Model the fold of this input.
Amino acid sequence: MTTSVNAARSSPADRAGLLILLAGLVAALLVAFLAVRHQTEQRATELVEQGTRLVKALTAIPKDGLTPAAGRPNPLAAVLRAHGNADLAYGLVTDPQGRPLSEVTAPGLTPTLLPLAADKPAEWFGHRPVDSGVAGLQLVEFHGPLLQDGRLEGFVRVAFREPSIGFDSRQIPFLAGLALPVLLLVPLFFFMLRSQLRPLQDVSRRFEILATGSAGDVAARDVVSRFGRFLDATENRILELEATRSDAETSIKLLGYKREKVESALETLPEGIMVLDEGGVVVFANPKVGPLLSAAPADLINKRPAEWPIDPAITRALAPLLNAESGPSTHNTDFHPDNDQGRRVSVWALPLFAPRDTTRRLGILVVLRETTDQMLAGRARDEFIAHVAHELKTPLSNISLYGELLRDEPDLAADTRIEAINTVCDEAQRAAGLIANLLNISRIEAGSIVIDRQRVRLGELLSDCMDHLSHSGSTHALRLRVDVPPELPPIELDKDLLRIAINNLLTNAAKYNRADGEIILAAEETDDHIVISVQDSGIGIAADELPHIFEKFYRSADREAVSRGGHGLGLYLARQIVELHQGQIEVASQPGQGTRFTLSFRKPHVLLRAA
Ligand code: ADP
Done:
């Protein structure tokens, strides 16, 4: 029973074949219809050309040549017969009023004599549709004038059947030529398709048998169940891949975002940063690299160090760091950009490893930094240490020398003994003064000093300083004077620091003075300032040295000044102290005549106003 049902049911391949057959036929019919329509239109165009040509030819014949005369056949009929068009419906020669003079008609047709306007020459030539009087038959009439010496003698009218869309016997060969390949090809295609679909048909039939359980085909069932599992697994795999793809997309976006963040951070770093890949090619360079390597970062990207457009000396210096083969064996090097020994750039090369595999090197991170300041600071520190060591060495070796003399020679003459003791004291004082200055300077420079402002009576403080100088034993025959008006108002200053500054100035005034010279320590008041001055009548300072005397460790090159010893710190410290009080220190000097230092401090009301 089931078998008969199956047998009765057409197979999918058969149905597909039938469909293809039908589609082929429809296509063939469509093509045939379009071809016939095209042919009809072409015939209509040809007809218009033919009719117009024929009428023109007929109008060239004199009227008498077209009208019948006694004893001779109708010439119009002969002309039209010679033309030989089977679609010719009629030919007419009429007088100007439309009365027929000669007529040739196809069997069964009667010409419809539509009038022609004899007074409108523009309408004499032309064609128009006319009714044939027979159902379904349309005619096209072509007409032209018969002229004799410019005079209208009549009209020639020739009508043809209008071509219609449809088959006629003349189109049979054309249609047969079209239909034959279609009819041959469609079955051929159908059979080819059928043979190609047969394996699928078998599989489909087997599935059907299994589905209905009509046969115990265990192997096939196994195949089907495996196929089902395979489909499930494939679907799962597709879902997994979809999930992985969406994860990957998210990761890519995240990485892009992180990369942008990292890049913008690297761009803003004050150091020049470059990243080289495993092959030693630059993949990133921030703008700071430009001035350090004297090359635009864009000119370094995608290039190996050997191709960088920079000074070859720098390339050579960097080569051991950036050699991608061996990795950065040296981690740091320095070079002088533009061969300028006054500038220094330090370079660090750090290997970049994969985050999860520290044995896999991804490239090199190169950090460039201008270290000119450190270089200069280092040099200054070295010079400072050398200088201080030298300055301390002299007094200490003198102390040691005279100390040994005093110890080893108990029978020294009294004056030699006193001289030795004085030298030891002087040198110890000198060393102590240097150390005290150094300590004060270092406190001021470190910013650890706090000014302790107190109301200071300058008269007392300056007299005190001068007393201290006169007791130091360095003034001998010098005339010392303190000149402070009694009405001078007290001023708020750090007394101890101010004392250090004035002592340094007084010591210099005594040291660089003439043997019988003079020192005047004075103070005075202006509207806004209290001005303290230290004036001596000593050797003076050359004009070209004046701008430098407040520099740290600056000492005059003048022979006389050099002979009097010193450390080049006294004036530097004095200026630091004055500036801590927001005051000003100035110098005016005449070589050979003397020097005057002035310290001016703003009065409280000026300080308040400034605040
Ligand atoms: P120094 O310990 O050498 O005196 P200072 O800093 O006190 O160091 O002075 C710096 C230089 O200024 C001195 O070496 C000296 O040449 C010059 N100088 C300072 N004060 C005077 C002065 N009153 N008269 C002449 N020269 C001076």
The pocket of adenosine-5'-diphosphate is lined by residues 504, 508-509, 512, 536, 538-541, 549, 554-556, 561, 566-572, 595 (CB under 6 Å). The longest strand covers residues 357-370. The chain has five domains: 12-169, 213-266, 269-370, 372-449, 451-610. The mean pLDDT is 84.
